[in-house]
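Narrative of accomplishments. A recurring question from our advisory board has been how the design workflow behaves on a single, concrete structure rather than in aggregate. To address it, we present the structure tokens for one chain from the evaluation set, followed by the sequence designed for it. No filtering or post-editing was applied between the two.
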């Protein structure tokens, strides 16, 4: 086993893994600082914040939490135990989201190696899924993955799904009249994205059904029939503070990697959550907690990956 921070190639391996995480509008709002041979710090990149649609920084934290999960897996599969401190200096350095200390030697489990290998395989699919239900045993594994990271994955029944699709369509409609929101969305969904943003080949087709089970980014390619019964779940956390958002992000990435292991794809319908944050609405008290991601699962075709920034750009000057 090698010490992951002893060599440039080890550092690069960690940054590449972290940088493959999903992020809101593919903003990749993370930076990393390597301090000595034992510590990596994860920072939120303030220049990549979405001022209009993410005023609280919730989605940015969720995205960084997903990158943190990949970083943990990369340390584990290098044979070391990661020790994670979330928000180690919240008053002085709120952008320092996590410190990861590379701890004692500990061989990775087969599951950790498998999930690590799936990091580049996982991708968001906004294409129609096949009319095939996810078996209860697989759903149970996804729920367990969320709970292992301190979050909850709540599968919606037929009524919950219908309500949520309506709710998402209404939110999209309201947002489409917001000039600032539209401007921010189009800045991150421009044609020909090279390193970040959602490229138009990833937008997926326009849904022939209404309400649509995918989000409209403005440049849908053609129209298609989507699955008859979309399979939606909501990822929730008990609290709604930055530390909860970071937990939600780690849970999200664990869920998505376990899904990928079963050949299950995912896309998201987060526009009601954006609207809630933008209008400073509060969630009604609910025993299931605060919604952080609305996820559509299913079996679908292979899709191309979205671009990423080069790993070298993710690293802050060494301490
Ligand atoms: C916090 C968060 C919110 C997201 N919201 C949406 C969404 O509402 N609709 C959507 O289609 N994708 C959404 N995504 C997926 C991102 O657009 C996607 O991860 C990014 O474009 C990178 O592509 P990839 O997941 O294929 O690597 C979200 C991702 C995160 C982490």
């Amino acid at each position: 086993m090698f010490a992951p921070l002893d060599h440039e190639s080890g550092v690069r391996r960690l940054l590449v893994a972290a940088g493959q995480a999903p992020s809101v509008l593919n903003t990749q709002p993370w930076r990393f600082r390597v301090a000595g041979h034992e510590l990596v710090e994860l920072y939120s990149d303030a220049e990549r914040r979405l001022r209009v649609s993410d005023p609280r920084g919730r989605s940015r934290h969720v995205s960084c939490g997903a990158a943190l999960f990949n970083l943990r897996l990369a340390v584990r599969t290098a044979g070391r135990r990661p020790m994670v401190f979330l928000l180690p200096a919240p008053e002085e350095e709120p952008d320092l989201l996590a410190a990861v200390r590379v701890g004692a030697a500990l061989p990775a489990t087969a599951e950790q190696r498998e999930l690590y290998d799936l990091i580049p395989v996982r991708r968001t699919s906004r294409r129609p899924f096949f009319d095939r239900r996810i078996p209860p045993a697989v759903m149970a594994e996804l729920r367990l993955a969320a709970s292992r990271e301190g979050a909850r994955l709540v599968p919606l029944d037929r009524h919950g799904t219908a309500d949520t699709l309506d709710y998402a369509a209404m939110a999209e409609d309201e947002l489409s009249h917001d000039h600032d929101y539209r401007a921010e969305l189009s800045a991150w969904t421009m044609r020909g994205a090279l390193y970040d943003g959602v490229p138009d080949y990833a937008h997926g087709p326009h849904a022939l059904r209404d309400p649509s089970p995918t989000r409209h980014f403005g440049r849908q390619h053609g129209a298609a029939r989507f699955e008859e019964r979309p399979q939606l779940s909501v990822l929730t956390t008990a609290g709604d503070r930055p530390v909860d958002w970071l937990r939600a992000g780690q849970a999200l990435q664990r869920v998505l990697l376990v899904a990928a292991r079963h050949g299950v794809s995912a896309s998201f319908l987060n526009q009601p959550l954006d609207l809630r944050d933008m209008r400073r609405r509060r969630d009604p008290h609910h025993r299931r907690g605060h919604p952080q991601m609305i996820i559509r699962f299913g079996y679908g075709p292979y899709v191309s990956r979205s671009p990423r920034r080069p790993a070298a750009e993710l690293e802050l000057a060494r301490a």
